[in-house]
Structures are given as structure tokens and as C-alpha cells.
Amino acid sequence: MTLEGDAPRRPEVQATPQPPVVDAAQILASRDHTVARLAAAPSPGEDDSSSNLRRRAVSASTREIRYASYLAAWTRKVERIGNINYPQAAKEQRIYGSLLLHVSIRADGSLAQVRVVRSSGYDLLDQAAVRIVELAAPFAPFPPDIAAETDVLDIIRNWQFMRGDTLGWEH
């Protein structure tokens, strides 16, 4: 009901909030931050004395040439071993998937740790990824320019067990 002179009330219209615009640089920066956080997180049973070690986290998005070169060589070795040792049960059952793996390598190339950060949903694939890294170890010692500032290299990679029974990586 309106009184004379009062204008009829209109229902209030609420504006739909617009999602924020995010560019590729923000996504990559966020991803690098997440990789560093994952690498720094202690894993269950990790020795506290390792906190004095100089660590460096790298991933597929690493652009610094010395780290990117080491990572590329590491990737080639692990992929070669992975394709030779692709899990037979996964082939037979046609199980495919991807997982996020954290691998820590000491300056001498020895394997410090390997752990699944995000599961593929298949224990078979998760265990195969860990086994492949263990089979591929030891790795090349760090070049002098990396060893001068890094004791442990934390590699975070998205593994893909793909159709065609091959091991692949994010690109």
C-alpha cells in the first residue's frame, strides 16, 4: 500500500559479483609458491636435523637455466626407467592417472626422500611412481654452481601414467 505522494517501491536488485580477473603470471607465481610450500613441508618421520640444509624447490615451471637443465636430465632418466618399468598390472587393467610426487635429492645425487603429495587414486600407480624413482637412483651429482648453494633439491612433478602405457609429464 502506498500513500499519496509516495513513489511505489521497487524491489532491490543485487548485483552479481564478478569473478576476479587472473592472468597467467599470477597463476604461475601462485604455483611456484605452492611448490615451495610443499617442498618445505616436513614429511612424516623426517629427521629434524635436516632443517639446517640449504634446500631449493624446482618444478616443471622452473626457468633458471642451471636448475632447469638438471631437472631436464633428471626427467629424461626417470622417464626412461619409468617406461621400461611401467607397471604390468596397470597395463593389463588399463589403469591410467596422474599424481603429484615430491622427490628430494642430495648434492651427491643420492635419493633423500620420495613421497606422494597428491594420489592418483590408484595405489598401484602411486607405488609404481615411488618405485620408479627408487630404481632410477642414484642421480647425477649437482653441478658445482648448484652444489655451491644447495644441499637438497626438492623436485615436485605431476606424473602421468598415460594411455599407450607410457609415463609422461605436465607440459
In words, what does this structure look like?
The chain is of the alpha+beta class and 171 residues long. The chain has a domain at 54-169: TolA/TonB C-terminal domain. It contains five helices and five strands. Strands 1, 2, 3, 4 and 5 form a five-stranded mixed beta sheet that branches. Helix 2 crosses helix 4 (123-136). InterPro entries: TonB-dependent_transducer, TonB/TolA_C, TonB_C. Keywords: Cell inner membrane, Cell membrane, Membrane, Protein transport, Transmembrane, Transmembrane helix, Transport. Belongs to the TonB family.
The description of the largest β-sheet is:
5 strands, mixed
Q: How many strand segments?
A: 5
Coarse shape? globular
CATH topology of the domain at 54-169: TolA/TonB C-terminal domain
Uncertain regions spanning at least 5 consecutive residues = 28-33, 43-49
Instruction: Label the CATH architecture of the domain at 54-169.
Output: 2-Layer Sandwich
How far apart are the termini?
65 Å
* The CATH homology group name of the domain at 54-169: TonB
Oligomeric state of shown chains: single chain
User: What's the CATH class label of the domain at 54-169?
Assistant: Alpha Beta
Helical residue percent band: 25-40%
Strand content: 15-25%
- Give the topology string: H per helix, E per strand: HEHHEEHHEE
Main location: membrane
Pfam families: TonB_C
Region (Disordered): 1-20
Subcellular location: Cell inner membrane
